[in-house]
Amino acid sequence: MKKITERLLSWASILEENTLEQARTSSRMPFIYPHLALMPDAHLGLGATVGSVIPTLGAVMPAAVGVDIGCGMIAVKTQFTALDVAARVAGGTPLSDLREQIERAIPLSAGGRNNKIVATAAPRVAELEALAVEAGFDPATRAKAWALQLGTLGSGNHFIEVSLDENDQVWLFLHSGSRGVGNRIAQHHIKVAQALMTKWWIPLADRDLAYLVEGTPEFDRYIAELRWAQHFALLNREEMMDRVIRQLGDFMGAAVEDVERINCHHNFTQKETHFGKSVWLSRKGAISARAGQAGLIPGSMGTASYVVAGRGNVLALESSPHGAGRSHSRSAARREFTHEQSREAMVGIEFRDTAAFIDEIPAAYKPIDQVMADAADLVEVRHMLRQILNVKGD
């Protein structure tokens, strides 16, 4: 850990100057208490740095939560082993069949939606409808087809993977968030916060650090919709995982045993107590890592991911990194890397071979091994996972 200032601590050994300056700016906001914690995967974000843990007194910055509210990971350990999978492949059922089955079962890519609300999604949609009534809003005013997006993946760094741990046990692993409705909720409240800053003549070093003050109607409305979107994201991952489990069961010719399941956010805000005070803790690209708490830290397409247990590091506000963290922007990655390099990085992994994923090449991210070394006092590694199958949206 490096103490940058009294209000900024960093666990990142790889940190670009513009990212550090952005974090400095965020840490100077008057309601930060006691300090902002930069995670090992920190990189430039909208307003606040991705990979930062931001405790605030009496205020929340919507852009510092992130526009994909509740984005996170879910993983399920199954009873199958690498030998079980190899036997199915040797018997004439290639892994490409499983990948294609998953791609048919789950709508991919930006804007992807289901044609109808399927049986497994129906009770989850009903639960979200009831929660929306309690929260006092209609999510359709933010995104009309929100219910049809429950159980959809999205694009960018979102993925579904079948992986093996160090004991050759099969895990299912996926990454997604609150889809279009969460994005619309976030964008709406960022604009509300910015309008209030203008109305009250409050100067900001970055307009994306606009904030809502606790006790105001605008703050209450944001928190109500934020909590709903966080739950949508969690149920979205559960719905997709149930579909992946069904496809794996069909592929293996046997029902999947859900041996262990972990579902965690890495873009979210909640009330927590740190250094003797109740704060709003925003984790933008970070997971909660209380002592013993299970968590998930993915690498990148083609590299290892980790199942971890938190160490409850007090200075890090009981948090840890959420992944590898980008070292190249998407446009920079497309300029620097080629489709052939992307193929080389995915040797031995079943995936959809397309130039659309060049910006997701592992070289566009920080080395996950270094990120995990930096996080040694934040989490304990329980399992290291290596993917054998990858599904992504364009």
Walkthrough of the structure:
The protein has 394 residues and is α+β, with helices and mostly antiparallel strands. The protein has one domain (67-265, 299-392): tRNA-splicing ligase RtcB. Helix content is 32%, strand content 26%. The chain has helices spanning 17-27, 62-65, 82-90, 95-105, 122-135, 179-199, 217-252, 330-336, 339-345, 368-374; strands at 2-5, 8-10, 36-43, 50-56, 59-60, 72-81, 159-164, 169-176, 212-213, 260-265, 267-274, 277-284, 286-288, 294-297, 305-310, 319-321, 379-392. The strands form four sheets. It has a seven-stranded antiparallel β-sheet. A hairpin with a 2-residue loop joins strand 11 and strand 12. Helix 4 runs antiparallel to helix 7, helix 5 runs antiparallel to helix 7 and helix 6 runs antiparallel to helix 7 (217-252). The protein is globular, with a radius of gyration of 21 Å. The two termini are 37 Å apart. The model has no long low-confidence stretch (mean pLDDT 94). Its EC number is 6.5.1.8. Mn(2+) 2 binds at residues 175, 266. Keywords: GTP-binding, Ligase, Manganese, Metal-binding, Nucleotide-binding, RNA repair. One of its GO terms (molecular function) is DNA ligase activity.
